[in-house]
Amino acid sequence: MPQLKLAERVTRINPSMTLVISAKAKAMKAEGLDVCSFSAGEPDFDTPDHIKAAAKQALDEGKTRYGPTAGEPALRQAIANKLHRDNHLDYSPDNVIVTNGGKHSLYGLMNALIEPGDEVIIPAPYWVSYPEMVTVAGGTPVIVNTTADTDYKITPDRLREAITPRTKLFVLNSPSNPTGMVYSPEEIKALAQVVIEADIWVVSDEIYEKILYDGATHLSIGAVSPEAFEHTIISNGFAKAYSMTGWRVGYLAGPSELIQAVSKLQSHATSNVCTFAQYGAIAALEGPQDCVEIMRQAFAKRRLAIIERVRAIPGLSCSEPQGAFYLYIDISKLEMPSLDFCSQLLDEKHVAIIPGKAFGSEGTARISYATDMDTILRGMDRLEAFVKAHS
Ligand code: PLP
Question: What is the CATH number of domain 65-286?
Answer without folding.
Answer: 3.40.640.10
